[in-house]
């Protein structure tokens, strides 16, 4: 009887998640779906990872330090979020799997750890470096994106998805890694490209990102005509 009482008194395992992005700038299309996801799957913490951008891809308009500052402004006063700048410290291209493995090594093998991606990233996941190792390190939480296909490109990839997919979010905290959860998050058609375009045209961005970030963008003179 005492053993049963002890079991029932055990705290629920916490589920932590990571969310990477260029964040040039961070906006409501990043924040609001993740906040909805946190409610859905009972996330205890979301770590934002501003990306280091490899040389073969277009460089962000804002510097690494400016992008980091905008992320800090976006999450100020929100206990759900933390920021981790490890990718910005690298001078060489970094891969998601490398970052995830380093975080897993730091936090131990038992923590339920998830990586948040969008439906667009899920569709191209098979092109990522060592993509088949991702579920050895974490769960995948997939946010809905407007205008993207629901199924993966090939029967083999779709079968891989279905083998790992869970529909009950409570399962995510019951083991450290290995599951894919397709979340029912808001479909927000907001992009950093659109924000930068509006800035250049002198249009309001009030519906796209927080005022604190808009003020920072203004003070730093970001996203203006060259």
Helical residues, percent: 25-40%
Structural class: alpha/beta
Average residue pLDDT: 90
Tell me what portion of residues adopts beta-strand conformation. 5-15%
Tally of strands: 6
Q: Termini, distance in Å?
A: 72 Å
| Largest sheet: number of strands, sense, barrel closure | 6 strands, parallel
* Structure annotation, total helices: 9
Q: Could you state the order of secondary-structure elements as H and E?
A: HEHEHEHEHHEHEHH
Overall radius of gyration: 19 Å
The poorly predicted ranges are 1-11
Shape: globular
- The strands making up the biggest β-sheet line up spatially as 3-2-1-4-5-6
Pathway: Cofactor biosynthesis; NAD(+) biosynthesis; deamido-NAD(+) from nicotinate D-ribonucleotide: step 1/1
Organism: Yersinia entomophaga
InterPro entries: Cyt_trans-like (IPR004821), NadD/NMNAT (IPR005248), Rossmann-like_a/b/a_fold (IPR014729)
Pfam families: CTP_transf_like
């Amino acid at each position: 009887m005492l053993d049963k009482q002890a079991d029932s008194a055990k705290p629920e395992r916490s589920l932590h998640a990571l969310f990477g992005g260029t964040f040039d700038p961070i906006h409501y299309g990043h924040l609001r779906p993740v906040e909805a996801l946190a409610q859905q799957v009972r996330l205890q913490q979301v770590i934002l990872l501003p990306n280091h951008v490899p040389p073969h891809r277009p460089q962000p308009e804002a510097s690494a330090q400016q992008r980091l500052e905008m992320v800090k402004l976006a999450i100020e006063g929100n206990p759900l979020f933390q920021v981790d700048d490890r990718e910005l410290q690298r001078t060489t291209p970094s891969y998601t799997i490398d970052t995830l493995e380093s975080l897993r090594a730091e936090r131990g093998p038992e923590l339920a750890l998830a990586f948040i991606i969008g439906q667009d990233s899920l569709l191209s996941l098979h092109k990522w470096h060592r993509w088949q190792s991702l579920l050895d390190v974490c769960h995948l939480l997939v946010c809905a994106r407007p205008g993207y296909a629901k199924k993966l490109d090939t029967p083999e990839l779709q079968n891989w998805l279905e083998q790992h997919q869970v529909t009950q979010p409570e399962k995510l905290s019951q083991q450290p890694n290995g599951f894919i959860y397709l979340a029912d998050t808001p479909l927000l058609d907001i992009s950093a490209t659109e924000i930068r375009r509006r800035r250049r045209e002198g249009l309001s961005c009030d519906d796209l990102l927080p005022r604190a970030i808009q003020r920072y963008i203004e003070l730093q003179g970001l996203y203006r005509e060259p």
